[in-house]
Q: What sequence folds into this?
């Protein structure tokens, strides 16, 4: 992932476009929902305005990123990621299911039959933290947001 790389509408991409392949994890961009009509904005690799991870991260602005795990040499039963939420609504979904729409730090304890736990704290202008999703099957995770940065997406078993 190169700093400054842009995904989505500004570069003529459409929902479902595969935009990254890293460590056998495939990332595709998709629509983002606030509970009304879907949006398809942009994602960009950049340094976050508030430190929360290791340098560059993925900024999601009215767009989602779906991380597919089928190319991994194992079936994950745990996925974690770090986030910086500076406002707006977020989406979180597993295995292609309907997304949770709300504040990611308030995600429900179960999505799509899998266990979700969130640890977060206050940071200037918002919240930062970590989301952990556990259970099987865990084929993919979709994360979307309006003013959301994510980093350190890690699948394990």
A:
């Amino acid at each position: 992932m190169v700093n400054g790389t842009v995904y989505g509408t500004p570069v003529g991409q459409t929902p479902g476009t595969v935009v990254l392949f890293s460590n056998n994890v495939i990332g595709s961009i998709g629509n983002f929902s606030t509970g009304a009509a879907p949006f398809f904005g942009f994602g960009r690799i950049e340094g976050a305005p508030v430190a929360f991870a290791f340098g560059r991260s993925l900024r999601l602005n009215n767009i989602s990123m779906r991380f597919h795990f089928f190319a991994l040499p194992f079936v994950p039963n745990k996925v974690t990621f770090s986030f910086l939420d500076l406002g707006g609504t977020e989406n979180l979904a597993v295995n292609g299911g309907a997304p949770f729409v709300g504040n990611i730090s308030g995600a429900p304890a179960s999505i799509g039959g899998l266990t979700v736990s969130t640890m977060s704290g206050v940071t200037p202008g918002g919240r930062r933290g970590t989301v952990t999703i556990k259970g099987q099957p865990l084929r993919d995770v979709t994360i979307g947001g309006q003013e959301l940065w994510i980093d350190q997406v890690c699948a394990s078993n």
